[in-house]
Automatic annotation (TrEMBL):
It holds the Pfam family SKI. Belongs to the shikimate kinase family. InterPro entries: P-loop_NTPase, Shikimate/glucono_kinase, Shikimate_kinase/TSH1. The keyword Secreted does not apply. Its cofactor is Mg(2+). The lineage of its organism: Bacteria, Pseudomonadati, Bacteroidota, Cytophagia, Cytophagales. Substrate binds at residues 36, 60, 83, 143. This is Shikimate kinase. It is found in: Cytoplasm. The keyword Magnesium applies. The gene is aroK. ATP binds at residues 14-19, 121. Mg(2+) binds at residue 18.
Amino acid sequence: MSDYLKIFLVGMPGSGKSTLGRPLAETLLLPFVDQDKEIERRAGKTVQAIFAEDGEAYFRLLESEVLKHWAATDMNFVMATGGGAPCFHDGMTVINVAGISVFLDVPVEELLSRTATDKGRPLLQAEDLAEKKTKLTALYDRRQTCYAQAQIALKEPTLPALQHAIDARLRK
Ligand SMILES: Nc1ncnc2c1ncn2[C@@H]1O[C@H](COP(=O)(O)OP(=O)(O)OP(=O)(O)O)[C@@H](O)[C@H]1O
Ligand SMILES: O=C(O)C1=C[C@@H](O)[C@@H](O)[C@H](O)C1
Ligand SMILES: [Mg+2]
């Protein structure tokens, strides 16, 4: 691990990485970094536009560059990673070498209800809820071996549980 405190929240779209990451960073007095926002800043367009205009493979390259940049930077931070960031271009190794990884493990039914009306997630575009559930379930199953490499896993995570897990880890 580096000399800096870098906390990487990983998990499925809708697992709460952005929602829980910001207050976690506030309580630890650390900057909060949203990886998707960093990708958008670098590309000068939205994640949706990158997927549509340049394709997923190009997005994964950008995503990996942004991850490596932050992994190497001389800064402490909490990062909400992109949902797929740990699962492409050996992202989980980059994360685990640089800092502390926390998998926010939320069941598919809950992910579905949280993302039901959301149109912004390119991998979850669907005609109806049933199709979205099929896509979410396939993505969830495919990603389990990747997310399982996180140093900490929290089932149905809450902010207090996340704070407690980080606290315990820092006391080790
Ligand atoms: N613990 C929670 N309980 C209830 N709703 C939640 C919780 N965490 C997040 N949400 C809601 O779920 C939705 C998705 O959360 P969020 O954007 O934080 O997920 P994410 O992991 O950052 O997803 P993405 O990978 O797409 O960026 C938001 O509408 C948020 O309000
Ligand atoms: O799970 C994924 O692969 C993604 C999740 C989002 O955070 C974005 O990074 C993008 O929509 C891809
Ligand atoms: Mg997010």
